[in-house]
Amino acid sequence: MVIRLKNAEEIIVKCHVCGGRLEPTISDLPFCLGPTSIVVIKKLPVLECTNCTEFSIEDPVMEKVENLLEQTGEAAELEVIAYAA
Ligand SMILES: [Zn+2]
To answer: 13 C-alpha vs ligand 1 centroid, how far in Å?
Structure first.
């Protein structure tokens, strides 16, 4: 079944896996920069599914994450940085 959203103002806050409700939370997430390089970003605001383990990152947050990852580089095998609002 395909659900079409006619109202553009309708904000999708449903899990793309199970359709459960997504709720904002603060989490520490690892990001792989390369085969041997992992960056952990702490205190990241994400949307987490209340029904399964899926989570989603909003676009403005993802942009900031990409900036942080660019500054980090791939030299470190494991780096832990904090997401600052
Ligand atoms: Zn889910």
So the answer is: 11
Does a structural domain hold residue 1?
Answer: no
Dist. CA 55 → ligand 1 center (Å): 8
| CATH number of the structural domain spanning residue 72 | 3.10.20
Q: From the CB of residue 54, how many other CB atoms can be counted at a distance below 10 Å?
A: 14
Ligand 1 centroid–CA 18 distance in Å is: 4
Cα within 13 Å of Cα(17), Cβ side: 10
pLDDT reading at 9 higher than 60: no
Number of domains in the chain: 1
pTM: 0.73
Q: Residue 40 sits in which domain range?
A: 22-82
